[in-house]
Amino acid sequence: MISRKNLINLISVILSVLMTVLIVFFFLLILGKDPFEIFGTILSEVFADGYGIGQTLFKATPLIFISCGLAICFHASLFNIGAEGQLNAGSFVIALIALKLDFLPAYAVIIISLFCGFLVSGFFGLIPAYIKIKKDVSEVITTIMMNFVILALVNYFLLDFFAVQSTMRTEKINEDLMFLKISDLVPFFQGSTLNSSFILAVLAAVITYVFIYKTGFGYKLRSVGFNELASKYLGVRTNGVILISFFIGAGITAFAGMNYIFGYKGFYEFGFSNNIGFTAIAVTLLAKNNPIGIIFSSLLFAILDYGGLSVNQLIPKELMLVVQGIIILSLLAVDKLVSNYFSGKFI
Amino acid sequence: MDLLSSVISLGFVAQVLRLMTPFYLGASAANFSERGGVINISVEGFMNLSAFSFAVISILTGNVFTGFILAVLVNLIFSIMFGYFTVSLKINQIVTGVGFNLFIAGLTKFLLVYIFSSSSNTPRFEGLPELSLFKNVPFFGLFLTDYITIFCFLLIFISVYILFKTKFGLRLRSAGENPAAGESLGIKIRHYRYYGIFICGFLSAVAGIWMASNQNSYSDGMIAGRGYIALAAMIIGKWKPVNIFFACLLFSAFEAFEISLQISGSDIPSQLIQMLPYFITILVLIGFIGKTKPPAADGVPY
Description:
The complex is a heterodimer of chains A (347) and B (302). Chain A is mostly helical and 347 residues long. Helices cover 74% and strands 0% of the residues of chain A. Chain A has helices spanning 4-30, 35-47, 50-75, 83-100, 106-135, 139-162, 182-185, 197-214, 216-226, 228-233, 238-253, 256-265, 276-286, 291-310, 319-342. In chain A, 54% of the residues are buried. Chain B has a domain at 22-226. Chain B has helices spanning 2-7, 10-35, 43-61, 64-88, 93-116, 140-143, 147-165, 167-177, 179-184, 189-215, 226-236, 241-264, 270-274, 276-288. Chain B is globular, with a radius of gyration of 19 Å. Chain B starts with a helix and ends in a 14-residue tail after the last helix. Chains A and B meet through helix 5, helix 6, helix 13 and helix 15 of A and helix 5, helix 11, helix 13 and helix 14 of B.
């Protein structure tokens, strides 16, 4: 059954979402907009038909992957905010390998390219981990710096060597590498871009859950996150745990590109990620680092994202970025107040 | 050859000293907060916020001084919020900082589109007035061109004085080094942590205002990681005002070098030049410094 800790978590998540709605409601009133019209448009656009639902699931897919990666890092108390860079490096490599290896059978190309993408993203995660271990410099600063460095490198290699003339994208991969569109199987989704990546993403969330909560390494990971010094005394090689969790955590972010490359466009395009690496931080925090929770919080953010497009006529879609920020801040505050309340320290 | 001669000129040195302004202001901002025991990752966001509010208010009211004062005020209001989260509620400071950064980035992007219907920048406006006092002084006239830059140089001495020569500085540092001992001597640790955050909010406001004033507009993403580089400078400078100054010089030298490279039209790809400051920051973090020692209670809620 649901434990007391999980129940408290659930209460604080629900309260903070409600709080966000309330704040956004008043924010819209101050701006002289009709909050009911805006909220209503978002919901009706998303849930009107199978296409809206399909698009929302499609937008949730990369968020699930990235957030699972972040959850691994966050469990080890490693605040990786370099997902934006890491996922772009990996996605770029996925597209390149899929292009170069087109003589192999399709399944082999897909597996090899995804694996290489994982390695490259993971490699870029190792750098801040190494600096943290050796120099005790917070990974927050180094991962941010790495974002700038990686994006510049990707941009350079893309434009100078691989891009289609006067675009920011690679060439298109072979048609037979493209993932199955779910709308081909289930007509309900009416031609939305939802593809089998979504199923893989849910699978990844389940695997990450098992990895974090049911394996020996996951236990070490959480113990390092909980108390690094104590874990060290108990014989956990904490430096190794930090390196491995950063490697795996950053590596998974590469799969965000799978949805876009194999499932949607067939090429890597610079800027495709559109700061999704930062959105994933909010998603992960809202899910309290729980991979199963991540599936649901990704869906919530996907609704905001897709719904934001539909209200762009009424209010700039950047509103959703404000909503994201408010969600994080109200979650942090509400979480603390709720846990104080349950431990009898309510102010 | 062009590049070399431009780099060793006096003009280049002056450029380095001028470009140092936002770095040093940001690094000092973070330093005051961390000396009080609060890690403030959101210096980046605070600089962004003040650059934005300064530009918007200056444009809407047509008066840069109103813009200056209100931008500082906005930052102080956000500092109260930041303090409430980190000091009163004792929430993890790094997570709070990242949360504020994302919130501010979203808010400025949204308001930019909402007010000016542009997703990239505000219209141009006349920045803060220039200072003509040193105009005819050789060399110094090249970089002491505005009040904020002069304030920035004075700040080196001001911070040393405040942190190490005053009662306030001693108490602030006790909040960052050993809050329990400070508390036992009757110091209101939480108040001092708030003061550190306020100073941080004020200084990062000035840094952001300098950026917007200098560019005569606000553009989305104009802070471009300078707040984080300032944090790196603070770490490399080991939380000491004078050392931080030299660390900032290092980073502004690379920025000035980047500008010279672009002007000289060398064939080094522009993306690689742009990533230089961040790349160098990482290299410096990996190589140049030994383990650095932050204030003992830095980041520990009290």
